[in-house]
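Thread: Newbie trying to understand structure tokens

Hi all, I'm a second-year student working on a class project, and my supervisor (Dr. K.) asked me to get a predicted structure for one chain before our next meeting. I've only ever worked with sequences, so writing a 3D structure as a token string is new to me. If someone could post the tokens and maybe explain what I'm looking at, I'd be very grateful. Here's the chain:
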Amino acid sequence: MNMIEKILARASGKKQVAPGDVVIANVDRMVLHDLSSNLVSKVFEQEMGGGKIFDPERIAFVFDHTFSPPSQRDADVLTEARRFAAAHGIRHVFDSGWGSLHHVIIENGLWAPGQIVIGCDSHTTVYGALGVFSTGVGNNSMAALGFSYGKCWFRVPQTMQVFLDGNLQRGVTPRDVAQYLEGFIGEDGAVYKLVEYAGPFIENLSMEDRMLFPLMAIDLGAKAGFINPDEKTLAFAKAHSAVKDFEMFQNDPGGAYERVVEVDVSKLEPQVACPPTVGNVKPIGEAAGIPIQLAEVGGSTGGRLGDLRVLAQRIKGRKIPASVRLQVVPATRGIYLAALREGFIETLLQAGAIIFPPGAGSNQAVNMGAMSEGEAMISNQARNFPGRNGHPKARVYLASADTVAASALAGRITDPRAV
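---
Reply by user tm_fold:
Sure, no problem. This is what the structure looks like when written as tokens:
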């Protein structure tokens, strides 16, 4: 069995499981942002009639979308989430300004290898880089099985492996590789599959960069993504998980895969996901020169300390042109503090950037970054669907923090290798 199958077997009281088996598994953590917590709370109280939550300690709320409510209706969403949490004994409530959902959960140690984490946010798959089985579920499933019984049902998926080898060229980043896979494998290339990311390239990445790959597996249609745990995983868990007594599962040798996709990353150049979907990925040369009005570092896949470092290094001593609004959104309070201490925030402010509180960035434009018709933005956030960031005819291009920085300075999509 692989790592995920072992986790599902233990959590469902079985010695082993195989693809196609249906299991009812105990869930270790349920994570919800402000929008989903409000919807699940309504299902639990209004459609199910309320009752007692099985174990409120397993639930965590993070208010990262409407962290600064622009209307009374939005304020009411947070008020209701706070009321529900207080009424049902949910202690793990990270109110406005803590940061982006999954980054906050990871930073605050509410996970451990060998666990099952579910959420109503599609990017719940990110914990697969940490020795965890994690996936998104619907509001009704979260309320009826998760909140009520601490369980969830799964059909054990088939597993495909993405094997990555080679060394990156100058100006190419792990984000470019993860983005390339979205286009290469396709947005329906792994529907309800487990995607294992493996190979020397993955093994050599930092834990921060490893997380990009399972996080973005959802846009391949995958049920979950994961990386077979190693010594880096164990060291990270010992340093950052609040759970000290955990079991880290690893793949059995000689495991079978439905298929294996091999990619030599040394052949890749910077990538840009062009409208209207994350799978419309093109080499930088095919997008270079497109004028932009907004640039952003932040969101579910951005705002990491490494992203802010790259941005500050690129921009230091220079000014963002008046035609561009550069939005910077640290992913968590911890990252914000580290960026302050290292001088990145001062550098970015002097360059003309707009610094927002930790949160989900312009994702869904509920707080910041709404765009008007015809505007274009380049961002290292996760999604670029029409209308997600304002007007349906606004355009969002997705790229690495390095490409975002080079483009912000030029006022148009720019190859970072040319700067």
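A couple of things are worth pointing out once you decode it. The two ends are 47 Å apart (CA to CA). The first helix runs from residue 3 to 11. Feel free to ask follow-ups in this thread.
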